[in-house]
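User: Could you go from structure to sequence for me? I need the amino acid at each position, not a summary. Structure tokens:
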């Protein structure tokens, strides 16, 4: 008898889909090792061999429908695959599936049904077909209110994706802000969003720098005011000098001058915070030619 636990064990060992694992066990009388070989022969368990690979390339993408937007980052091992039609079609399917659902978390999204099983099954199947480790790294679902507008911008074919929500202005302004955020990488929308512990740590670093520069201790608190202002100008979207401005206008002032206020900004950069591959181009091509 082929039990659910046996199917689960085989799936964990091979990375193949549930139905494929069930069929493999049926074909091999429940023998796990024979089933693994069967899946390998069929080319279905390729995904398992990729499990420890680094997938830090890929695509960040956005899809909008009415008042709802979905952002995702889908990773691959190489930039070549990120341009592969099978990969981009998979990304589109994932976006559409999430957009047409009511899920909000990554775990929930992976369980959503597509024409090829769940999203998780689809990714495993494409991993086997394409031959590289693929993964859905993160998602963000954003719902705007009436009167608000989305601004979306995709940079370098999906290396960076930015979504903004602006209340009271138009889509052109919202897109301008998204383009600015793509270029300048703000960490927060406004200064009030900077966590207290983060700000205090920055202040401590600033104090140490000033003391090391020989600044008198009694002057440090006064100098810190200017330094904190400068810090906000670096990390907060509203405080940054707008990249298109000719008169030192901040992003916040630009939006306000166009009748709006920034409600939200989400920025995905592919592979940020992940370990990057160390192979060079020649080594990568050599590996592909050797079928590794």
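Assistant: Here is the amino acid at each position, in order:
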């Amino acid at each position: 008898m082929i039990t659910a636990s046996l199917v689960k064990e085989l799936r964990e060992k091979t990375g193949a889909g549930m139905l494929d694992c069930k069929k493999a066990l049926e074909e091999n009388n429940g023998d796990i090792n024979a089933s693994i070989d069967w899946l390998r022969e069929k080319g279905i368990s390729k995904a398992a061999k990729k499990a420890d690979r680094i997938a830090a390339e890929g695509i960040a993408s956005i899809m909008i429908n009415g008042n709802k937007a979905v952002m995702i980052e889908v990773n691959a091992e190489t930039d070549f695959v990120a341009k592969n039609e099978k990969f981009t079609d998979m990304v589109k399917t994932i976006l559409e599936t999430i957009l047409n659902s009511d899920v909000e978390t990554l775990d929930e999204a992976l369980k959503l049904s597509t024409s090829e099983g769940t999203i998780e099954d689809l990714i495993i199947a494409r991993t086997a077909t394409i031959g590289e480790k693929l993964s859905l790294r993160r998602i963000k679902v954003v719902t705007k209110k009436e009167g608000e507008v989305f601004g979306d911008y995709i940079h370098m074919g999906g290396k960076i994706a930015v979504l903004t929500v602006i209340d009271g202005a138009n889509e052109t302004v919202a897109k301008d802000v998204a383009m600015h955020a793509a270029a300048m990488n703000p960490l927060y929308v406004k200064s009030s969003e900077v966590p207290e512990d983060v700000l205090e740590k920055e202040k401590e670093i600033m104090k140490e720098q000033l003391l090391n520069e020989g600044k008198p201790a009694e002057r440090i608190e006064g100098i810190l005011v200017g330094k904190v202002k400068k810090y906000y100008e670096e990390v907060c979207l509203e405080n940054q000098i707008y990249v298109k401005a000719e008169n030192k206008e901040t992003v916040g002032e630009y939006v306000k001058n166009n009748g709006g206020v920034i409600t939200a900004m989400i920025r995905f950069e592919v592979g940020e915070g992940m370990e990057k591959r160390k192979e060079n181009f020649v080594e990568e091509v050599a590996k592909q030619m050797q079928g590794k």
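One structural detail worth keeping in mind: The chain is about 45% helix and 20% strand.
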